[in-house]
Design brief:
twelve-stranded mixed beta sheet; globular
Length: about 525
């Protein structure tokens, strides 16, 4: 608690200076180019500060088992580059799976065995920052300390993005929840640092039933108030839940009518919802730019947005690591992203996973300011990667590695809310089976796009269980998320408002290999 208090004091003390010193595009571009040149040195410095210099690091026993010193890694980086060194580390057993990272199984490599919780991977540094939390849907919520100096580094991406999309000097808004979700406040900070503080912040979670607790709302209010002492104040969140799509759409249409252009940053599904709402009104969104992320941008979702006349710009971020993928403005396909390889290194296994043609991504943080310390860390995502030149400003700066067809194999993401599959399985086993009967084999979760390109989470309930109330099952699932933690209330609130969870009465379906799995990704029928 003392460490948390000190971190928050430093945050408030440093906020004014952070906001009063926005970076220019030229500064941002030079910063990114320099980090690309120095990524090897930055990785070794992060390793010394956050791992070898941290006696409680869960990576130390793995490195000791691999008989790998800091000098050994430095030699490998010089000879084989960062990725070459990381491949050699992974072969020696220095890597962490998604299940191990979430603390659901011990990390066992040879004689080394580490019982690590998610918080064990937190950056040990004591810089100014604030805490975000995982939903705790599979156990105790995990705190992540988000450092102000990390936002300083990430703001360079925002500056380049605003230049690429020509969004300086046009109305700009966010549509995200407030703290403890980091998306709203974190993006507000970085956009302001990039010289484009949002004009409005629409709070995606305004349903009183599922609002997070007072601590997150109080922290948001206090930080916004404190920002008014600077020359670059932050917008205060205002209610605009999924039942208030028209309120956000009204703002977009007003800006298009008066300025001809505007920008809005939110989740992929919210871009689709606004596009649908505009078409239902008979209105076009030409001139609007949606910066969207937090869930896969499928071809169907992209088509829905394009039909409204709006354009979109995808991103791939992680609350644990920061920016991972930066949208390409000369894409080879929908969802084409540049790897943020100045701050992230990535290697892949040789084989696909989970029936997906893509291979699992293993990420390593290169900067000592990262919220979580990652060395060959599996975050549960997979996809393709390729080296390719394009006619994009990011390519010009030096970002040549592209991520394509990014998907999750360990989580489900709907309406920007990400939940581990293990959490859904636990709800079936511990909540639904005791109440409605049957075993886990009588239930099957399905992630599926509907005819309007919304991602739905459908639960197959075997008819052999007997008559059940599908609406009551949905309520029980959402109430369980609501009960678990302040952060998981955000999941419950957004999914409740969007009607994300549905029950269908049919038997669980086997895969083509004949296995009946508790969770499946399926295309809409």
């Amino acid at each position: 608690m003392l460490g948390k208090a000190i971190s928050r004091f430093r945050l408030f003390a440093g906020l004014r200076g952070f906001l009063n010193n926005p970076i220019s595009y030229d500064e941002a571009r030079a910063m990114l180019a320099r980090r690309l040149e120095e990524r090897g040195e930055n990785f070794l410095y992060m390793l010394q500060q956050c791992v070898y210099g941290n006696p409680s690091s869960p990576y130390l026993p793995l490195l000791k088992e691999a008989q790998c010193t800091h000098e050994d890694v430095a030699a490998d980086v010089r000879l084989h580059g960062v990725e070459g060194a990381l491949n050699r580390l992974k072969e020696a057993g220095v890597w962490v799976s998604f299940e191990e990272y979430k603390g659901r199984k011990p990390i066992v490599r040879g004689r080394a065995s580490v019982e690590a919780s998610g918080e064990a991977f937190n950056n040990p540094g004591g810089a100014a920052g604030y805490s975000g939390r995982s939903g705790g849907s599979t156990g105790r919520p995990v705190a992540t300390s988000v450092r102000l100096d990390h936002h300083v580094k990430r703001a360079a991406y925002e500056s380049v993005m605003f230049r690429m999309l020509d969004l300086y000097d046009v109305p700009f808004a966010l549509w995200y929840p407030q703290l403890p979700a980091d998306t709203g406040f974190g993006n507000s900070l970085r956009d302001a640092r990039a010289g484009r503080a949002p004009d409005r912040w629409f709070d995606l979670l305004s349903d009183r039933q599922d609002k997070p607790g007072w601590e997150g709302r109080l922290m948001t209010w206090a930080l916004v108030r404190a920002s008014r002492l600077s020359s670059n104040p932050l917008a205060a969140p205002e209610p605009a839940g999924l039942g208030d799509v028209d309120r956000v759409l009204d703002w977009v249409l007003e800006q298009l009518a008066s300025h001809g252009r505007c920008g809005l940053q939110s989740y992929v599904s919210q871009g689709v919802r606004l596009s649908h709402a505009a078409r239902q009104r008979g209105a076009g969104l030409r001139g609007a730019t949606f910066i969207i992320g937090s869930e896969p941008l499928t071809a169907a979702k992209a088509h829905e947005i394009e039909q409204s006349g709006a354009r979109f710009h995808p991103r791939y971020s992680s609350s644990d690591l920061g920016h991972v993928g930066l949208g390409c403005c000369d894409p080879a396909e929908v969802g084409d992203l540049h790897l943020a390889e100045d701050m992230i290194a990535m290697i892949q296994d040789d084989q696909g996973q989970g029936g997906h043609e893509g291979r699992v991504y293993y990420f390593t943080s290169l900067m000592e300011s990262t919220p979580k310390v990652a060395i060959n860390l599996e975050l549960g995502d997979c996809g393709r990667a390729e080296e390719r030149r394009c006619a994009c400003l990011l390519d010009e700066i030096g970002f040549h590695r592209h991520l394509l067809d990014v998907r999750s194999i360990s989580c489900v993401t709907c309406e920007g809310m990400t939940v581990p599959v293990a959490a859904l399985v636990r709800i079936v086993e511990e909540v639904l089976c005791p109440k409605y009967g049957g075993s886990a084999l009588h239930y099957q979760w399905v992630e599926q796009e509907d005819e309007r390109s919304y991602t739905r989470l459908r639960l197959r309930v075997d008819p052999r269980i007997g008559q059940v109330d599908g609406g009551r099952i949905v309520a029980d699932v959402l109430n369980e998320f609501h009960r678990l933690s302040q952060s998981s209330r955000i999941v419950a609130g957004v999914w409740r408002g969007a009607g994300t969870v549905e029950v269908i009465r049919e038997s669980p379906r086997p895969t083509t290999a004949g296995k009946t799995l508790p969770f499946m990704h399926e295309k809409a029928r």
